[in-house]
């Protein structure tokens, strides 16, 4: 039996994707917690190519993510919707914004954790059924429900804190 | 291999352990194809005489035994006019005390040298719904496309065209078409009116195909409809099965959202074909021309898999990934895998659930099947390919990651499956579970960059919560939209 690390569904041995939530399961024979060494993390950091979205200049971006632990500010433009999560090797699906480089794994960020999007007047955040939840200014959000964001709000993906900086709206 | 080297089994397309019924059937099929009344190519009469001799020998058990004694040992791998490849999700089975899953993926390809060869002539019947609801853009596009199809026909192709409402009319009878201008004006005169009785249309289309039924042609019926038929579904399905037996394929195209997808899926899969959804009438043109193109590209018109049950092994799912993504269902003990095109592999994935009692040391044969491929351009029947799939048993098991092709196929099959699960839960009345399946599907679609389909799915999840049902349109968009994802290249490649 393979227990899905995302939703705890019990899958038949040999399953490749979780029958319940679609999480990729291959190579996971039993539920084991894998220890990640510092070496591996720094290697991940070295391999991390600069994110294309990060090339947006603050002038044309409608949203910037201020990663509070590292102090880095990531301006985003080009699209009206960004999914946040962390890339995991061998997974055919990936979020728009990969937070691996910001200790996402250690902070409990799901591979596909939340989405931030805008329409004419609002910017909203929605949790995508993540394991550890999304918090808006300390309040846990109901999964799959949109919540309006204001400039300066703090969104936590698990333990990873991100301040939302808005402009031009 | 030259003719005189062929033994009687090769000649009839049989394996050496063929049963008397199989021998009889193979003879009738060959005779139909090669009968002197029909054959045109020099030398076919000689082959026909050989086939008769083969049948006379093999149909009598004494003569067969005598003949068998003279044969050299059978070649291990028969030389086949197509290529096949099988890959597995794992190298071995684990010796464990619980059920385990295994996937196998089968690729069938035309041989390299025939990929550019000229293809078999067509015998196609286009069966068009002309009920009142087709009025307007739908009918205009259908007519324009039909004219285009007529102009694209090669001299050797046979096309018939049927329209139906409460009854059917033959607009163009099955024949070679030289005076195309006259036919075009007939197409232009089609007027929408009346109801939708699909059996009427199918029956008339089948009759036209049968008039020039020829195993050397690609025999195919295309049904275009935008509505539901009432009361004649069973009759239609029986006709489809009969057509499939005669080597006639069926493709269905449903326009808009009012048609019965479950019925059309059943109809087309029964004959190894598939159903497509046409949301926008403007797509009729592209999809219909693509269909004709695929027919012209057909190398083998059918591949049928006859699976023997294996104790403790359940073949839980069969899905064709390409060329036309669709589930393959078991009909009368056989899986119709559909045609093999000249330049696209026919790719099918099999899912097995294996019970622990059967996993002993050594190895386990989890599939025992015979694959029978029908190739129109081939004078001889193709011998069946015995597929005995097995995996070694090891303990402890070392699964390793499945090959990339299987991962990719399953990552999409998972999406299709999620919306199927939502339907099942909804049928059982588990509204919340159904909605949750769709929400998870939407999440997964978003990660794959399929934003518009994800939105449709979210809308349907809301519809389930509010009305405890799916919308007609959204339901079809989800089903055929997730199927179409198999053909799309991944929008975001794996970052390595």
Shape by Cα distribution of chain B: flat
**What's the N-to-C terminus distance of chain A?**
50 Å
Instruction: Kindly provide the radius of gyration of chain B, computed on alpha-carbon positions and rounded to a whole number of angstroms.
Output: 24 Å
Q: Indicate the percent of residues in helices of chain A.
A: under 10%
Question: Roughly how many Å is the radius of gyration of chain A?
Answer: 17 Å
Low-confidence stretches of chain A: 28-41, 43-55
The total beta strand count of chain A reads 13
Judged by helices, strands and strand pairing, the structural class of chain A is: mainly beta
User: Per DSSP, what share of the residues of chain A sits in E-state strands of 2 or more residues?
Assistant: 25-35%
What is the mean pLDDT of chain A? 77
Class by SSE composition of chain B: alpha/beta
Give the overall pLDDT of chain B as a whole number: 84
Helix percentage of chain B: 25-40%
Q: Within the CATH hierarchy, at the fold level, what is the topology of the largest domain in chain B?
A: Rossmann fold
Question: What is the β-strand count of chain B?
Answer: 17
Order of helices and strands of chain A: EEHEEEEEEEEEEE
Q: Which two chains form the greatest contact, residue counts included?
A: A-B, 33 and 40 residues
CATH hierarchy, class of the largest domain in chain B: Alpha Beta
Q: How would a crystallographer describe the biggest sheet of chain A?
A: 6 strands, antiparallel
Shape of chain A: elongated
Largest sheet of chain B: 6 strands, mixed
